[in-house]
Specification:
The chain is α/β, with parallel strands linked by helices. The protein is 36% helix and 23% strand. It has 8 helices and 7 strands, in the order E-H-E-H-E-H-H-E-H-E-H-E-H-E-H. It has a 7-stranded parallel sheet with strand order 3-2-4-1-5-6-7, sandwiched between helices. Strand 2 (31-39), helix 2 (48-56) and strand 3 form a beta-alpha-beta unit. The longest helix is centred in the middle third of the chain and has 14 residues, at 145-158. The radius of gyration is 16 Å and the shape is globular. The chain starts with a strand and ends in a 17-residue tail after the last helix.
């Protein structure tokens, strides 16, 4: 697996910290993280790709294709800014180029799988299809996550895309009943294995501490040692 696409069941659910954990667990390999469209930040502010590099370590090359100032879906943000949108074929071309120079390329989407990149309806799913790349789904822990995860997995299957698995993007220190039960139910909803759970607040750690903990948050399929806890 040279290129892995990371999506989520929604926004602000931990895609960047999960991407960083996967990158950190790949220490010893040359890793690039590609953010096709960064929204909601001004020029010069550190974006998601830079945050992955901060957390995961110096072996990560951060790449951002486009930046739009308003915190909106990429297509809307590009249109309102009067800027050219990012298109799926551009994402695929950039990822393929990075793959010639890196052992692993992580493509982190914006929002969910079907958020529009452009006004023609291009999405992260289209980029994944062009790349024939597996997709890792990041999901929240609590109530409501099963439906959103099932819908994302169904959209992947409908497009002939592989759902590599699911990672919980922010697991509370003291998970409630729904969060505990979802550990068992998420793989059923996704039709794919649960491949880890990143603890809440992990993104606030110093880079060295984050990198040291990352393998313990991810299953062996992502280079870690995490196993599904018993309820």
């Amino acid at each position: 697996m040279t290129i892995l696409v990371v999506t989520g069941t929604g926004t602000e659910i931990g895609k960047t910290v999960v991407t960083a954990a996967v990158a950190a667990a790949a220490r010893g390999r040359r890793v690039a993280v590609l953010k096709p469209a960064q929204t909601g930040l001004a020029p010069g502010e550190p974006g998601d790709a830079a945050e992955v590099a901060r957390l995961a370590g110096g072996h990560v090359t951060p790449v951002e294709l486009a930046r739009f100032p308003e915190p909106l879906a990429p297509a809307t943000a590009a249109r309102r800014a009067g800027m050219a949108p990012v298109r799926p074929h551009e994402v695929a071309e950039a990822a393929e180029k990075l793959a010639t120079e890196h052992d692993l390329v992580l493509v982190e989407g914006a929002g969910g799988l079907l958020v529009r990149f452009d006004d023609e309806g291009g999405t992260l799913a289209d980029a994944a299809r062009l790349l024939s790349a597996p997709v890792l789904v990041v999901a929240p822990a609590g109530l409501g996550t099963l439906n959103a995860t099932a819908l994302t997995a169904e959209a992947l299957r409908a497009r002939g895309l592989e759902c590599l698995g699911v990672v919980v993007g922010s697991m509370p220190d003291r998970p409630d009943l729904a969060s505990r039960c979802n550990i068992e139910d998420l793989p059923v909803a996704a039709g794919a294995p649960l491949l880890g759970a990143v603890p809440a607040g992990a993104g606030a750690l110093a880079g060295a501490d984050f990198a040291a903990g990352a393998t313990g948050w991810l299953a062996p399929g992502l280079g870690g040692t995490w196993t599904v806890p018993s309820l």
